[in-house]
Amino acid sequence: MLVSIIGLGLIGGSIGLALRQGKKPGWEVVGYSRHQETVAKALSSGAIERGATNLKDVVKQAEFVIIATPVLTVKEIFSVIAPYLPSGCIVTDTASTKVQVMKWAEEILLPRVDFVGGHPMAGRETYGIQAAKAELFRGCTYCLTPSKRASQKSIDTVISMVKKLGARPFFIDAQEHDNLVAGISHLPMLLSAALVSLTTKNPSWSKMSKLAASGYHDLSRLALGNPEVNAHICLSNKEAIVNWIDKFSQELERYRQLVADGDKRLEQALTEAQEARQEWLNNLSA
């Protein structure tokens, strides 16, 4: 099977490494990037066997296409590759939002191919092909959102790919996906960025930075993420993200009031949050 990966950053590179690590006889992994330097790095790292900077060249004979680019570029990629995809080709993506991607797939991809939307719930604060790791997806949840016309055979092929990565397939509706990940993924990223913006712009940052330790390090980690990818996420999921920001603002205001009033119920609120997080951790390891 010829597998073509479009986008050779952290996610695309890691998929290539994982697929080639557990490669079946007859599988060939090729890759595309706009930049020849990235293609060269992907080849030297072993993420792909062949590479190109021309989209047509990597999809015209593909049986399985994986699009691992920032979400707002997916529409353009669909438009470019649609005429060249062979009949029976399976197409999937790794974008962090699904409603827009599923809409574009329905509008642009031809009926002769099957599309299964995907989103691995895994990542790192570092990015680019140099950050790719075969183990990135091991044990993670991998969201799948098949299009209405996708055959069961195509869905099964994508499930097989997900399992090869070491991930767990999780089927979910596109709208529900976008609302839920806005709360547990997109909102934390924006909170991290906002914290860094606020503190580093403070006149006392030069002294404050010397005091910053593990707490600041942990909360600011997500601000290191790929700005292009994160901006695309927000712009493709505006309504859900704004809704979660509003809810967070209300909750933060509740804590603000408890602090401002010297309210003894603050300890109870912190205890409830502590217990809720511990319960989540316990369920993860169960």
Oligomer: single chain
User: Structural class given helices, strands, pairing?
Assistant: alpha/beta
Number of domains: 2
Which term fits the overall shape? elongated
Sheet with the most strands, sense and barrel status: 8 strands, mixed
The CATH topology of the largest domain, please?
A: Rossmann fold
Helix content bin: 40-55%
Order of helices and strands: EHEHEHEHEHEEHEHHHHHH
Name the strands of the widest sheet in spatial order.
3-2-1-4-5-6-7-8
Describe this structure in words.
- 53% of the residues lie in helices and 13% in strands.
- The chain folds into 2 domains: 2-172, NAD(P)-binding Rossmann-like Domain (Rossmann fold), CATH 3.40.50; 176-285, 6-phosphogluconate dehydrogenase C-terminal like domain (6-phosphogluconate dehydrogenase C-terminal fold, Orthogonal Bundle).
- An 8-stranded mixed β-sheet has the order 3-2-1-4-5-6-7-8, with helices on both faces.
- The protein is an alpha/beta fold.
- It starts with a strand and ends with a helix.
Question: In brief, what are we looking at here?
Answer:
This protein has helices spanning 10-21, 36-45, 55-59, 74-81, 99-108, 152-164, 174-200, 205-211, 214-220, 227-235, 238-260, 265-285; strands at 2-6, 28-32, 50-52, 64-67, 90-93, 114-120, 141-146, 168-171. By secondary structure, it is α/β, with parallel strands linked by helices.
